[in-house]
Amino acid sequence: MSTPETSRFVRIRVDLVLEIDDDEAVTGAALQALADDTGLADGERALAERAVTEDTAEALAHLVDPFDLVGAVPGVELQQASWSSEQIDYDPDSPEWDLGEDDGAEDVPEDGETTAG
Q: Could you give phi then psi for residue 24, rounded to 5 degrees?
């Protein structure tokens, strides 16, 4: 239920780690997406093409669109989105990569009482 004091806006944070096993396929898909984008000015297209050719992470950022995540969800309208990608060192066994560790969420014990996490 919604009360007048409840905000209608919700922030969803998503952190993805992807393994790219075919740089050329990602770059090619990004270049094709840029070629298909009829609303892009020639100067902007040239800059974007250079960026995606030089950096696979940049190519991936051109292929991932937050609107695609929520565009078909009924009753919501995307108000703002930002995203970036970067190449990282990743060790799935490292405690540094535990999901949810740095998200600011609170731990909720089984009895429902909230404690700081």
A: -65, -35
